[in-house]
């Protein structure tokens, strides 16, 4: 299989074939996802939550995102590696956004970048796209704006916010974005937005009519014990499995069962 590109993503939407996306932050997990045929691996700034243990995504830096992204790029042969630009690295001006985007592309080898927001940052997005860097938008519950929203509840339930989201999505498409992530919005709104765009919509908590789906890999693996909103499907219960395994390891070390004859030189 050759490398998935942003053209492949457009083709999948045109064909009506759904697009699979999962996050990854490190080499080992990214390698498995790549071999499983996940089309897009998102190096999300959710690393701030699931890797670093922060309550929000705001603290993660561009340098830290570059480290995660370069680890994922080295692991993949097939997947398109999409990387979040972190809070504070692209909102200030088109020049700032351009500089951050170029650093990420040069230093990590990422294939495309994701930025949160619509019309407010459209000039910044255009400047990045003009440099030949593919951009994916992100609308709805955009976690970098959590202090504005005040809650992690569903966005765009009211008409005014829904109309703004539709206008933002149109603006992103016109700016040349190849896709947009729709996070935690009513399924009916996501359906309407998806039908109105030729670029792909990738949903998370946005219903089954999006062109693709994304989950945070730690949630997908059941590695996060304290976070289970209804849009998450846990395909494994890794927290429980690791808990049992680590408990067994402690016992085996203490009893002298590990290492055995075959496990030493
Ligand atoms: O950072 C992230 O994991 C994301 C997805 C939830 C879309 O942006
Ligand atoms: Na993100």
UniProtKB/TrEMBL annotation:
Its main location: cytoplasm. Pathway: Cofactor biosynthesis; (R)-pantothenate biosynthesis; (R)-pantoate from 3-methyl-2-oxobutanoate: step 1/2. GO terms for molecular function: 3-methyl-2-oxobutanoate hydroxymethyltransferase activity; magnesium ion binding. Pfam families: Pantoate_transf. One of its GO terms (biological process) is pantothenate biosynthetic process. Its cofactor is Mg(2+). GO terms for cellular component: cytoplasm. Binds 1 Mg(2+) ion per subunit. Mg(2+) binds at residues 45, 84, 116. Keywords: Cytoplasm, Magnesium, Metal-binding, Pantothenate biosynthesis, Transferase. Gene3D superfamilies: Phosphoenolpyruvate-binding domains. It catalyses: (6R)-5,10-methylene-5,6,7,8-tetrahydrofolate + 3-methyl-2-oxobutanoate + H2O = 2-dehydropantoate + (6S)-5,6,7,8-tetrahydrofolate. The active site is at residue 183. Its EC number is 2.1.2.11. SUPFAM superfamilies: Phosphoenolpyruvate/pyruvate domain. PANTHER family: 3-METHYL-2-OXOBUTANOATE HYDROXYMETHYLTRANSFERASE. HAMAP family: PanB (MF_00156). Homodecamer; pentamer of dimers. This is 3-methyl-2-oxobutanoate hydroxymethyltransferase. It comes from Sphingobacterium hungaricum. The lineage of its organism: Bacteria, Pseudomonadati, Bacteroidota, Sphingobacteriia, Sphingobacteriales. The gene is panB.
